[in-house]
Amino acid sequence: MTFAAAETATRRQAGVIKLHDAAAFAGMRRAGRVTAEALDMLVDLVRPGVTTDAIDRAVFAFAMDHGALPATLYYHGYTRSCCTSINHVVCHGIPSDKPLKEGDIVNIDVTLIVDGWHGDASRMYAVGEIPRRAMRLLEVTHECLELGIAAVRPGATTGHIGEAIQRHAEAERCSVVRDFCGHGLGRLFHDEPNILHYGRAGEGVEMKPGMFFTIEPMINLGRPHVKILSDGWTAVTRDRSLSAQFEHTVAVTETGVEIFTRSPKGLDFPAQPAPPRPALIPAAG
Ligand code: MF3
Ligand code: CO
Ligand code: CO
How close is the Cα of 102 to the center of ligand 1, in Å? Predict the structure, then answer.
């Protein structure tokens, strides 16, 4: 594994990880923020009866209104502005005219390009009231993402991220999908390195300041195995168990981690109310 200044390396090259400068961080903050705002905008739209096509149109319109381009549009033949993965769909669900129904859980994954920089994030949304076991899966999966992010710091390895996620998921009797991983990104959508959501500390590559990548664990209530449907995109659990995913775009900094796609409104876990801000907690006595 080698490292290269991102200004000098443009294409994806096996085994070469780009290290980014301050201007790139500024670009990623803008792209990450618009992406997070798109996911915030969807919180009020997701409800029973709404089609995933309508969600897709809303993402496209939001991108147009914010000087952004959906990265998935015409990406390897994909023709939508987002992915919508419902219940046992693991990832890459294609928006359709099928309405969401009460009790569904849906991942909406949005990647927006702003001034050439990619912000890539996804969240789980609850459609009306959802079953208890579904809410537990959402909680475990969100905790897995947060634990993975907490493992990011210079000098640690990408294996520290995978271990933190796998340990928590399996302790909660869930499984980690192996067939998809997080990825480097920046001016490219999918770049080196791969970020596995399982493994051991010390495996993978050493993290260095200026690395940009996603962490996007897919966690199943049942077994980890997936299959791809005949549309060539939709990945589902083989045992049809529920699957969930949350994704953030992050950077390795000199001291730890910066999250580019945090919700400005505290809606990173929209199925669950945001904790009250300290200023709003009444003083004791
Ligand atoms: N946004 C997805 C990711 O997290 C990739 C979607 S590619 C598509 O990497 F073509 F399926 F849209
Ligand atoms: Co991604
Ligand atoms: Co994504």
Answer: 26
Nearest-angstrom CA–CA distance, 214 and 245 = 12
d(CA 131, CA 157): 37
pLDDT above 70 (res 52): yes
User: What percentage of the chain has pLDDT greater than the value 90?
Assistant: 93
Cα–Cα distance for residue pair 104/55, rounded to 1 Å: 15
Which ligand 1 atom minimizes the distance to the CA of 75?
A: 10
Distance from the CA of 233 to the center of ligand 1, in angstroms?
A: 10
Q: Which residues line ligand 1 (CB under 6 A)?
A: 72, 75-76, 78, 83, 92, 109, 111, 120, 214, 216, 233, 247
Task: Give 284's pLDDT tier (boundaries 50, 70, 90).
Answer: low
Hey, what's the torsion of the CAs at 109, 115, 117, 121, to 10 degrees?
-20
Torsions phi, psi for 168 (to 5 deg): -70, -45
Q: What percent of the chain stands above pLDDT 70?
A: 98
- pTM, to two decimals: 0.96
Tell me how far the alpha carbon of residue 272 lies from the centroid of ligand 2, in angstroms.
23
pLDDT at 280: 66
Q: What is the dihedral of CA 272, 41, 182, 163, to 10 degrees?
A: -20
- Per the prediction, the chain carries an average pLDDT of 96
pLDDT surpassing 70 at residue 156: yes
27, 51, 128, 257 from 107: Cα distances, Å: 26, 13, 14, 24
How far apart are alpha carbons 236 and 228 in whole angstroms? 6
Confidence tier at 125 by pLDDT (50, 70, 90)? very high
Give the single-character DSSP code of 98: P
